[in-house]
Amino acid sequence: MLGAFIRAFRTPDLRRKLLFTLGIMAIFRVGSFVPAPGVDYGNVRQCLDASAANATQDVLSLVNLFSGGSLLQLSVFALGIMPYITASIIVQLLRVVIPRFEALHKEGQSGTAVLTQYTRYLTIGLAILQATTIITVARSGGLFLDCPVEVIPNDSVATILIMIITMTAGTGLIMWFGELITERGVGNGMSLLIFTSIAASFPSGVQQIATSNNGLGKVALFLLISVVVVVLVVFVEQSQRRIPVQYAKRMVGRRTYGGSSTYIPIKINMSGVIPVIFASSLLALPGLAAQFSQDQTVPWVQWIAANLLDPGATIYILAYAVLIIFFAYFYTSITFNPDEVADNMKRYGGFIPGIRAGRPTAEYLQFVISRITAAGALYLAFVALIPTISFKFMGVNQVMAFGGASVLIVVGVGLETIKQIDSQLQQRHYEGFLR
Fold first, then answer.
1. Are 238 and 415 in contact (CB under 8 A)?
2. Sign of torsion, CA 140 145 147 153?
3. Could you give the angle at which helices 99-106 and 109-140 cross, rounded to 10 degrees?
4. Rounded distance, CA 262 to CA 255, Å?
5. Under a CB-based contact definition with an 8 Å cutoff, are residues 242 and 235 in contact?
6. Tell me, what's the pLDDT at 265?
7. Are 308 and 357 in contact (CB under 8 A)?
8. What is the pLDDT of residue 264?
9. For the chain, which has fewer Cβ within 10 Å, the N-terminal or C-terminal residue?
């Protein structure tokens, strides 16, 4: 693999793409430390030190993870990539309920461009809403627990408006960075920016574990568990069920078309990391409602704090697993339509050997998808809960940097990026990474 990296940097155009990608990622990280106007950065650092023990269990910890820690620093990139992720998921879900969106999806590249534009507009709208919410929480003292100083000393209307505009513009700039990487760099830009944010939080996560009792032993044990999880993730993410497809021969004039054999690759985990993000976000909603409650001694607030804000609680673990399995089936049913695949195969003269074209093919695909999704959903729940259970037995507070979603994203993005570099090396007659 080291030789493949050297060959990649020796290829001029591929070297330019890699350096361009690394440059954008570096700029993204620098922007994460630039405080927004109106924020007292000294007070922010003081509040971070005072609430270090509680920051990992905050309801905004998932957003803070995807922003590379810039959320709790109230930087210009405080919102990170989360508004774009949310907008993309919403647009995908709207294809089910809005026929216009489904029609645009079927139009090909032109329709996809229109959906991308809708996603951009929705991203800006969500960024304004999230910036307003985060600033409101910061002003009320809910962003940092037990912080004696104010992070926004001047809370005038003009200052608040400038902060909202700055954070929204930061989200727009991140979205542009991601598109630049996709067009001129290597890999998927948005995924690489998420990868950068999560990877940047690994050192602080290791430090947090190391500062606990018997820290070095716990770090070694957890690194061993992480290696096992990474191997499992790589194995499952590379696995697929290949359904054979045969195309009948057709005579068009004097030429013969078709007659070839291919297959439909169906991944075990078709939904990716989306179910884990959905489950984490949904479980954070009760905690967010409890956080805005003025009386923290109310019984329902205390029950939420004990069962839904503690990742090691039994109810939290069970609810997390059930939600991941549910969303795995739900998202797979949206992204893969057996009826559409069967119709396309029938239109071009394709069929699965032993299965009649049309409705029987759709039923067979649905049969296969249901069983593969069961294995994929259990795998997602297992990977997502291994770090939580490990932290519980080791007596360490949950560290979001080593959560199931973090591992899935880092390994998945790394594999896809290596595949793209590998394909470009092979196009130039070089031996790639994957042998």
1. yes
2. negative
3. 130
4. 21
5. no
6. 87
7. no
8. 86
9. C
Sequence-ordered list of residues with C-beta below 8 angstroms from that of 56, at least 6 positions apart, any chain: 208, 397, 398, 399, 400
| Phi, then psi, of 262 in degrees rounded to 5 | -145, -165
Taking CA atoms, 101 is separated from 105, 332, 337, in Å, by 6, 18, 15
CA–centroid distance for 224 within its chain: 24
Residue 216 contacts residue 248 (beta carbons within 8 Å): no
What is the SS3 string spanning the chain? CHHHHHHHHHCHHHHHHHHHHHHHHHHHHHHCCCECCCCCHHHHHHHHHHCHHHHCCCCCHHHHHHCCCCCCCCECCCCCCHHHHHHHHHHHHHHHHCHHHHHHHHCCHHHHHHHHHHHHHHHHHHHHHHHHHHHHHHHHCCCCCCCCCCCCCCCCHHHHHHHHHHHHHHHHHHHHHHHHHHHHCCCCHHHHHHHHHHHHCHHHHHHHHHCCCCHHHHHHHHHHHHHHHHHHHHHHHHCEEEEEEEECCEEECCEEECCCEEEEEEECCCCCCHHHHHHHHHHHHHHHHHHCCCCCCCHHHHHHHHHCCCCCCHHHHHHHHHHHHHHHHHHHHHHCCHHHHHHHHHHCCEECCCCCCCHHHHHHHHHHHHHHHHHHHHHHHHHHHHHHHHHHHHCCCCCHHHCHHHHHHHHHHHHHHHHHHHHHHHHCCCCCCCC
| Number of neighbours of residue 140 by Cβ within 10 angstroms | 10
The two three-digit tokens of residue 352, written as one number: 């699965």
- Looking from the CA of 417 toward its CB, the CA atoms found within 13 Å total 27
pLDDT along the chain (435 residues), means of 10: 69 86 90 83 75 50 65 80 84 83 82 89 91 83 72 84 91 91 86 84 75 74 81 84 81 64 85 80 72 66 73 81 89 85 83 85 90 90 81 65 73 81 73 55
Dihedral sign computed on CA atoms, order 424, 425, 427, 433: negative
- Alpha carbon distances (Å) from 178 to 193, 238, 389, 428: 7, 25, 34, 26
Handedness of CA 358, 364, 370, 376 (dihedral sign): negative
Q: How far apart are CA 191 and CA 340, in angstroms?
A: 28
